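Title: [Solved] Phenylacetic acid degradation-like protein 3D structure

Original question kept below for reference.
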Amino acid sequence: MTNPNADECEQTKLDVKSIIRKATELNDFGHLLEHVPYAKFIGMEVDRFGDELIFKLPAKDDNIGNPVLPALHGGVIAGFMEMSAIVQLMVFMQTSKVPKVVDFSIDYLRAGYHKDSFAECKITRQGRRVANVSINCWQTNRKHLIATARAHFLID
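Solution (posted by the thread starter after getting help):
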């Protein structure tokens, strides 16, 4: 006996490579983020400037962790930075699968206030199976980082 849900899952299974290809052709990486529930939940956006992707986390009340300041939740900042690195790898390496996190280390440098936040990623080392990415996150000035992170990903 076959499982009807398994057939539905197979039909709705995402073809990562074609989603990335379409986003690249349209130069609209929002198309890629539409397929990532967490990115939609936190309101993540991305723009391409030449060979660079700049990720944006718009100010959103649901992302506040400390209402007294008000400041972003540290987990939202980390999730935003990790997701930025994943998208960076998927776009520039044209992966056929979503990269898997091997490790992720973040340094919080100052409070991330309730305003737009931005991130940029740099692929610092790429092997056959593992990629190392550094991520910087800021709000009003790139020189005043709110967090920095390093991550290793297993790629296909």
